[in-house]
């Protein structure tokens, strides 16, 4: 006799999951392209993209095909054995970027943990054990392990977990003088997001990144770009560093890399990679055949002129709608970001209320994000249909209207 399964509802979340998230009241159960449906069959247009992850929308046929094919072939070997999908993906990433070596992990956090460990290790073995200082930025986000929250510039994520890793210093983003003031020969790395994502969708200025490059060269420090959110086509370039024309020594990528399948990578040069040796670092799942096969399929689609060149027109369409919404409701003080990583900062009278707009959006049938309490964030599929942008923004306009008139 079949046992009756208890119903799964939003209330189940509070009974079974750690209280570290505040998920929406509805539970998505199905997705196709830029549309998602919940348990009740209500449809949403997805401008959240799983936080800049589902860069080809939901259930893209090529990704489904790669997952199915690999799923019937070989799932996992561990790194005691290598595997073909990981080697193919590594080759693609090297061919398309500055990098000469790649290592795969499973999350943005792990890719950054790898990058920060490598930067310290490289400095201590090639230069001096005292060359350990990491310079990072206020409002930066680099992940949730103790090292990565400590390099991140939002103390609310690291306070209470101490003692924290030492010799990490934070200065204001886009402030080259502040960096120069703390930079010295004991610095092993400068870590920066070319576009701060979680911190409020703020792009670095070209002069800032160029200046960081020069300071790093002068002091033999490594320049680490965290492109976990800005990479894989999000800005219209494969990686944001290409747009800026400033090449890092180490780059991390995750989020869109697997299009929704957990996978991340750290890219670097042969010289820097060679500081590590067998046993220096590792991961059971990193570069797993399933993840690598899906990421390989996603890469082949994202790294094409059709997808990359399409980003700027889609951005213009989004920004046009946001400007119209602002003209009607007077809610935004600035619309910013790059490509399809779009931020809309709320006017002072709406500060702190980003999540209200997000909830109103869900009511109206559109999934959007916030980046902190004051900024609305949009990180849709890179191949979102023009008609979906129009329909989703019409729904978002209704949501904004509802929040504004509820005052
Ligand atoms: C999301 C994010 C991370 C963390 O990635 P996880 O996969 O959640 O560990 C790190 N850096 C940046 C810039 C991110 O946006």
Automatic annotation (TrEMBL):
Residues holding pyridoxal 5'-phosphate: 108-109, 141, 226-229, 284
Keyword check for Transmembrane helix: no
Free-text cofactor note: Binds 1 pyridoxal phosphate per subunit.
N6-(pyridoxal phosphate)lysine PTM sites in chain numbering: 255
Origin species: Enterobacter lignolyticus (strain SCF1)
Binding partners and assembly: Homodimer.
Family the entry assigns: Belongs to the class-III pyridoxal-phosphate-dependent aminotransferase family. ArgD subfamily.
Annotated Gene3D superfamilies: Aspartate Aminotransferase, domain 1, Type I PLP-dependent aspartate aminotransferase-like (Major domain)
Assigned EC number: 2.6.1.11, 2.6.1.17
GO biological process: L-arginine biosynthetic process; lysine biosynthetic process via diaminopimelate
UniProt entry keywords in alphabetical sequence: Amino-acid biosynthesis, Aminotransferase, Arginine biosynthesis, Cytoplasm, Lysine biosynthesis, Pyridoxal phosphate, Transferase
Cellular component, GO annotation: cytoplasm
Function in brief: Involved in both the arginine and lysine biosynthetic pathways.
Cofactor(s) named in the record: pyridoxal 5'-phosphate
Known catalytic reactions: N-succinyl-(2S,6S)-2,6-diaminopimelate + 2-oxoglutarate = (S)-2-succinylamino-6-oxoheptanedioate + L-glutamate; N(2)-acetyl-L-ornithine + 2-oxoglutarate = N-acetyl-L-glutamate 5-semialdehyde + L-glutamate
Main location: cytoplasm
GO molecular function: identical protein binding; N2-acetyl-L-ornithine:2-oxoglutarate 5-aminotransferase activity; pyridoxal phosphate binding; succinyldiaminopimelate transaminase activity
Listed Pfam families: Aminotran_3
Protein name stated in the entry: Acetylornithine/succinyldiaminopimelate aminotransferase
Subcellular location: Cytoplasm
Binding annotation for N(2)-acetyl-L-ornithine: 144, 283
InterPro entries according to UniProt: Ac/SucOrn_transaminase_bac, AcOrn/SuccOrn_fam, Aminotrans_3, Aminotrans_3_PPA_site, Class-III_PLP-dep_AT, PyrdxlP-dep_Trfase, PyrdxlP-dep_Trfase_major, PyrdxlP-dep_Trfase_small
